[in-house]
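Problem: given the chain below (161 residues), write out its structure.
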Amino acid sequence: MFFKSIAAIFASVVLAAAAPQSVTSPPSIFLIHPDGNNAKCLDVRADVLANGTAVQIFDCNGTGAQEWVINPGNTKVQLANTNFCLDAGSTPADFVGMKIWTCFDNLPAQAWFYTSDLRIALTGTGECLDLPNGDVTNGNQVQTFKCTDFNTNQIWTTTPA
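Solution.
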């Protein structure tokens, strides 16, 4: 009887150890590029982590100012390892310059949708993240503009940071 009890305890310990463990993995961090141009990145101007700092296009340079957490479908576009998100402001419309702002849950200005055709659309507005005139000159501030099919100024690709 004693040996059966020991065997049962041993078996339950082995089974518990072999059971899959739930592990929360850190979010995936990406560089966001205009229309597949992997030399250019979505960038927080001068790496200034403050509400209202402009978001622009800049040469990819390996800094945290270019590392983003973004997921397919409904998503925030969050600057990695910070509490700042891509923000479209209180009255999103065509030609509104993008900035970062402290992340808030359920804030419409930070509710994005990364589409299967690689657009980053502001949920419920018909506006997309847009590279003005397709100009990849360093410092060109990105904006929102009416989502338009086949508009390469609104195509955003990602690569792991």
